[in-house]
Amino acid sequence: MLGVHFAITADQEKALLDADGDDDAVGELLGDIEENWDDDQLKVDTDKDWDEIHRCLTDGSLDPDAGDYPLSHAILGGHGMHDDYYVVYVDATQVRDVAAALRDIDRAGLRRRFDTLLPGSDYDGPLGDDDFAYLWTDFVDVVNFYQRAAAAGRAVVFTAT
Q1: CB 7 within 8 A of CB 155
Q2: In Å, how far from its chain's centre is CA 88?
Q3: From what superkingdom does this record's organism come (predicted)?
Q4: Which among 31, 71, 122, 161 is most buried, taking Cβ atoms within 10 Å?
């Protein structure tokens, strides 16, 4: 599954919250957001690294309820809005909290977290130096994205389909 974060407008946020509970309506709104998105500064693609990023920021699992707030909310820990795939909403206040917490994680800190992921548990992804280098690049993109989203006062929606 490929992951992407959007720092949504107030109108998009209202429409999404109004559609909450209706998978078809949420899916349709996300399709519209994805198709018509025109601000690359308020969007970040994490390819497949969203999985490892979430695991590194929580307890090593893919559980949306894992880990401690606010780091848990960087990827999966917000409000889930779809039953068939990940659509996770984080309000603007939470975005500010996530942005502040992410600033505290440097390369060495993320590497320590990455090195705790255990093959054979529910994680079966790559764990080498090249894999970490790729993960670090995507992580920095997520950190910068959250800084911009917080500065803009935007809520965030993460999707992985």
Answers
A1: yes
A2: 8
A3: Bacteria
A4: 71
Q: In angstroms, rounded to a whole number, what is the distance separating the alpha carbons of residues 37 and 4?
A: 12
| 105 CB neighbour count, 10 Å cutoff | 17
Fill in the DSSP letter of residue 79.
E
Owner of token pair 């911009």: 148
- Classify residue 155 by burial, with Cβ atoms within 10 Å: 0-12, 13-18, 19+: buried
Q: How far apart are CA 112 and CA 95, in angstroms?
A: 24
Question: What's the number of domains the chain is made of?
Answer: 1
pLDDT at 115: 87
The DSSP result for 3-32, as a single string, is: EEEEEE-HHHHHHHHHHTT-HHHHHHHHHH
Averages of pLDDT over runs of 10 residues in the chain (161 residues) are 96 98 97 94 95 93 94 97 96 98 98 80 68 94 98 98 84
Q: What is the DSSP-derived secondary structure letter of residue 67?
A: S
- Is the Cβ–Cβ distance between 71 and 94 less than 8 Å? no
For residue 108, what is the domain's CATH number?
3.40.1760.10
Phi and psi at residue 90, to the nearest 5°: -130, 120
